Recover the amino acids of this structure.
């Protein structure tokens, strides 16, 4: 079976702010594919030009890049031009999903729930934003992941400083209303939703440190939600991915409100594959080992 994939490049590292996590994800994927007998090789676009993939006869690419330059449609476009099938979403869906603001606009147009928000810049009326969204407010760069540059604002006087921090990462900055409830993540593989993961972070702060480098965050999979409620959320996740044009695999983050309704936060088209990552955790509950998960993702590699 492994031989049908040909020579496979695992794209990892890159130049984004999430390089460190991408190296961890790519290393884990590379080891799993090699253990399964796949002729897989690490390829870091920050160290080697992408055109080398064509010159060296790679047949497929497993994208384990996170953030800009890897998850935003640019690498996908280059691979399209070279005729190398790749994992995950295509150019358009990758670009939209990387943009938290435009993702929200598409979801709202499709009637899908997402928290109220505002775009911040130097001319923003900070008091008006606080009056509209209330406190706390989440402030985050539009085109970053892994909570890079994100701040939970609890006092009105903190909002401008939070914008200044986020603006170091991105010229577009989003302020989002804080929604109380249970934090969930919902992976999908092909056209099926995998089991939900419920996240309980220290102090409710699921930031960069608590995502990747501490063992204090708790993850529950199975989630413990009633079966009917989980199925309802899973169906919505499949829809929220489809309206963006996503394919292959990914993960959507959402909040389950205290009243039983839910609201969508964002979607990741190349999620983490580290030992703290949530897609592999969910896949295990669905009966897929990490190796089997990587092989299934790789089998879905395509162009267009």
């Amino acid at each position: 079976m492994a031989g049908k994939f040909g020579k496979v490049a695992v794209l990892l590292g890159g130049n984004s702010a999430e390089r460190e996590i991408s190296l961890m994800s790519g290393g884990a994927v590379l080891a799993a594919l090699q253990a399964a007998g796949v002729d897989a090789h690490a390829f870091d676009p920050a160290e080697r030009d992408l055109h080398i993939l064509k010159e060296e006869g790679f047949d497929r690419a497993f994208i384990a890049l996170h953030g800009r330059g890897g998850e935003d449609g640019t690498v996908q476009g280059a691979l399209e031009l070279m005729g190398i099938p790749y994992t995950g979403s295509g150019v358009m869906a990758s670009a939209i999903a990387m943009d938290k603001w435009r993702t929200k606009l598409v979801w709202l147009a499709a009637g899908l729930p997402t928290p109220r928000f505002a775009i911040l810049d130097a001319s923003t009326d900070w008091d008006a934003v606080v009056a509209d969204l209330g406190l706390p407010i989440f402030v985050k760069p539009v085109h970053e992941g892994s909570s890079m540059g994100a701040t939970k604002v609890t006092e009105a006087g903190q909002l401008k400083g939070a914008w200044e921090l986020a603006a170091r990462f991105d010229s577009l900055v989003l302020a989002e209303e804080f929604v109380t409830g249970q934090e969930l993540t919902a992976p999908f593989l092909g056209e099926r939703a995998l089991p939900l993961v419920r996240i309980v972070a220290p102090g409710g702060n699921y930031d960069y440190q608590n995502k990747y480098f501490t063992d204090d965050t708790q993850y529950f999979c199975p989630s413990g939600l009633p079966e009917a409620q989980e199925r309802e959320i899973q169906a919505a996740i499949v829809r929220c991915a489809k309206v963006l044009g996503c394919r292959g695999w990914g993960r959507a983050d959402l909040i389950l409100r205290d009243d039983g309704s839910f609201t969508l936060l964002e979607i990741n088209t190349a999620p983490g594959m580290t030992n703290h990552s949530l897609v592999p955790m969910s896949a295990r509950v669905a009966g897929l080992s990490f190796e089997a998960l990587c092989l299934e993702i790789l089998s879905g590699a395509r162009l267009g």
The chain has a mean pLDDT of 94.
